[in-house]
Specification:
Blueprint (H helix, E strand, L loop, with lengths): L4 E5 L6 H14 L6 E5 L5 H8 L4 E5 L16 H6 L4 E4 L2 H5 L5 H13 L3 E6 L3 H5 L3 H12 L5 H4 L2 E5 L13 H18 L2 H6 L2 E3 L5 H8 L6 E4 L6 H8 L2
Parallel strand pairs: 1-2, 1-8, 2-3, 3-4, 4-5, 5-6, 6-7, 7-8
Helix pairs in contact: 1-2, 1-12, 7-9, 11-12
């Protein structure tokens, strides 16, 4: 049975003191949940938050990772650095990385393969723009991102991959795909994984929904057959809202 998984992506928010307080509140408010819970603070707060969540049920994630272990890569963060402070999961291919910073499918794949080689779990983000959805290309775009992102990833390694479907048009806009629309793409992702790997791999794959998830829509989304959790943005910045989603 797939384990439900809610991850909070704090993006470029929270100084160290704020991150410490938020992480402490999330640990307290989500105690006893049956869900997996993860927080992904900004890089500057990772070390502080690692101490807060150590020994608790809350896992530590990073929002991005370089495609290299070390070297002349100004401004980048390597997998070795992330491992050194206790990060267990890395979010890769987020729509903001794809569209705001021009990350290609091949670059994202390089990061995925490197992260898996260092023992991280990967949250691989896929999703279409509004134009792509309106022109009937949503499934094709998501399928291409999935195939490219997982190139060279064996079925054994796929066990450490979570896919997050995040329609670009629903991130930070207040708009959300209906539970039925979201579940349809999640089902498409599961079928694609079945074609790429096996029916067993497809059945065991955890697929999160990310796109303006809030306490008032979480239960409808998480109640769908193929939606196994959420990658939460803005609502993860308030402990009470994030806990409400976890407890939905």
């Amino acid at each position: 049975m797939r384990k439900r998984f809610v991850a909070g992506n704090w993006k470029m928010h929270m100084n160290i003191a704020e991150a410490e307080a938020l992480a402490s509140a999330i640990v307290e408010r989500t105690k006893g949940t049956d869900f997996r819970v993860l927080v992904a603070p900004p890089f500057t707060a990772l070390h502080t938050v690692s101490k807060i969540v150590a020994g608790s049920h809350v896992e530590l994630g990073a929002q991005n990772m370089a495609a290299a272990e070390k070297g002349a890569h100004t401004g980048e963060i390597s997998p070795l650095m992330l491992a050194d402070i206790g990060v267990s999961s890395v979010i890769l291919g987020h729509s903001e990385r794809r569209h705001d910073y021009g990350e290609s499918d091949s670059l994202i794949n390089s990061k995925v393969v490197l992260a898996l080689s260092h023992g991280f779990e990967v949250i691989l983000c896929v999703g279409e723009t509004l134009e792509e959805r309106d022109t009937g290309k949503a499934e094709r775009v998501v399928g291409t991102q999935l195939e490219s992102g997982l190139a060279g990833v064996s079925e054994d390694l796929l066990a450490r991959v979570v896919v997050a479907y995040e329609p670009v048009w629903a991130i930070g806009t207040g708009r959300t795909a209906t539970p039925e629309d979201a579940d349809a793409i999640h089902a498409h992702i599961r079928r694609a994984i079945g074609d790429m790997y096996s029916s067993a791999a497809a059945e065991s794959l955890v697929i999160q929904y990310g796109g303006s998830v809030k306490p008032d829509n979480a239960s409808g989304l998480l109640g769908k057959e193929n939606i196994d959790g959420a990658l939460v943005g803005g609502a993860s910045l308030k402990a009470e809202d994030f806990a409400a989603i976890v407890n939905a």
